[in-house]
């Protein structure tokens, strides 16, 4: 662990490596092909994305390159980064030279990226695997242009706490639990953090929050997962956030 509290999560990386290896047999996919992402997460993301044509995008936690491909198809230059070597290898096979991919840990400095390089940093359902957001968000701020945007999604802390309260110290603490992925043998570590900690992490790393949405699923999600659909229409399940580097003076 580095002096600033950055922490690499070997359990999660090994878990995603295993999920990539078994991706053709997965009952529930962690990537864009899942009903959860198609009918719940992605429609909300689309609604808050800035114009992407002609921009340079960092797909942070790019997985097997699903969203990297979408950004490419919509006119962006894309750099993808993920800690799973299996995911990166798959993304490279799928997209070839259309995008540039790096196997690297988001909790470390992004040595491949220069200051003010990207118009958009997109981090879909990846920050929930990270304990300390501040160094990661600060690095995102470093590589973003002054008028760039950070768009990210995370599982809502209310859902995390309701489902895993026996494994967590309290709603108000940042705490972790390990999620077993069905019968795949894969495990990933997840971090619960309260709403206040999400907001404080952004503010303290010089971001202004532009959109902060407790999203609801589209009707199509009902058939795929009726129980989660009904719950998500009644109480928070997933957050979708857009933030921008803070201008001067302080916002």
From TrEMBL:
One of its GO terms (biological process) is methylation. One of its GO terms (molecular function) is S-adenosylmethionine-dependent methyltransferase activity. Keywords: Methyltransferase, S-adenosyl-L-methionine, Transferase. Residues 220-251 are annotated as: Disordered. Residues 220-234 have a biased composition (Basic and acidic residues). Residues 58-152 form the Methyltransferase type domain. It comes from the Archaea. This is Methyltransferase domain-containing protein. It comes from Natronobacterium texcoconense.
